[in-house]
Design goal:
Blueprint (H helix, E strand, L loop, with lengths): L4 E6 L6 H4 L1 E8 L2 E3 L2 E4 H4 L7 H14 L3 E5 L20 H7 L8 H16 L25 H17 L9 E2 L11 E6 L1 H7 L12 H17 L2 E2 L2 H9 L4 H17 L16 E2 L1
Parallel strand pairs: 1-5, 3-8, 5-7, 6-7, 7-9
Antiparallel strand pairs: 1-2, 2-3, 2-4
Helix pairs in contact: 3-6, 5-6, 7-10, 8-9
Length: 286
């Protein structure tokens, strides 16, 4: 069984997340994925959302409302297994990690980052500040609790992933996660982790220097979009094409790339590479 819809979400933990979270996707047809939805959280999600907490809560509601959809999100779904192993009662598997996140006394991203750094020092005798998962290195992803990743990992897992997958906040569980919980599409929603820069790199496209307002950066977005359309069964109309190219933050492009990675995962029955998969840590589909 395949989903009827495929989406990609460019996630953000910023205070103005309503402008920085982008969603792209649409129906899965015989010809591939047709991008019918492309916009910020403020334009796509129900209600006039504003701010980080409202946007993340609205994204949870939107995911819960999907029917027959595969959705790729670009934040880390797990941590290096070395970190949880340093606590007294380490989680036995990924599901236990999700149930135990965030770690005790981690009320926000800064505390989470410090917790990770302390656990890293303990695990490496002070040799390193940050560790990566098995799946991070091969695709060039940053540490999930590093300077770049700590905010989106913290809010992504605590405020979006756990409520949707575990049914917290009074809602029912609405999604299954590949490949930790399934290697087939599970209705109504199957979620996966993706990484747009890694996807672009896999396709031989430009993984950096495409975000910004210069002519060179705009041209890089155009080349990336053209290359993505050539390499995948993706259809983007003229208006959305212009949106992707003119969006200087690159978030619109990243959402479309996330959707393309999700489409590829669906087409390949959520196939994954054992060499870069620790089942306790999560997996990046590119």
């Amino acid at each position: 069984m395949e989903p009827e819809f495929v989406y990609g979400v460019d996630f953000s933990g910023a205070r103005d997340a309503e402008r920085n979270v982008w969603i792209a996707g649409g129906p899965l047809t015989e010809d591939g994925l047709e991008i019918e939805t492309l916009g910020t959280a403020k334009s796509v999600l129900d209600g006039d959302v504003s701010g980080q907490a409202e946007t993340h809560a609205a994204l949870v509601d939107w995911l819960r409302d999907r029917e027959s959809a595969a959705v790729g999100l670009d934040f880390s779904f797990g941590l290096p297994s070395t970190l949880p192993d340093t606590v007294d009662d380490p989680p036995a598997d990924w599901a236990a990690f999700l149930d135990s996140f965030p770690p005790a006394d981690c009320s926000g991203p800064d505390a989470f980052e410090e917790w990770g750094k302390q656990r890293t020092r303990e695990a490496t005798d002070g040799d390193r500040a940050f560790l990566k998962r098995e799946t991070d290195g091969p695709v060039g992803a940053s540490s999930p609790y590093g300077f770049v990743g700590s905010t989106i990992t913290f809010h992504g897992v605590r405020d979006v992933l756990a409520p949707v997958v575990r049914g917290s906040d009074g809602g029912d569980a609405a999604a299954t996660v590949a490949p930790m919980e399934t290697t087939t599409f599970e209705s109504p929603v199957t979620l996966l982790e993706t990484y747009p820069a890694g996807v672009l790199n896999r396709l031989g496209l430009q993984r950096d220097s495409y975000k910004g307002g210069s002519d060179e950066e705009r041209e890089a977005r155009q080349r990336n979009l053209d290359g993505l359309l050539d390499a995948t069964d993706l259809a983007v109309d003229g208006t959305d094409r212009e949106t992707v190219i003119e969006n200087t933050g690159g978030d619109a492009l990243d959402a479309v790339v996330a959707a393309a990675a999700t489409l590829r995962a669906v087409e390949r029955a959520f196939e994954y590479d054992d060499d870069r998969h620790d089942p306790r840590e999560g997996y990046i589909y590119v």
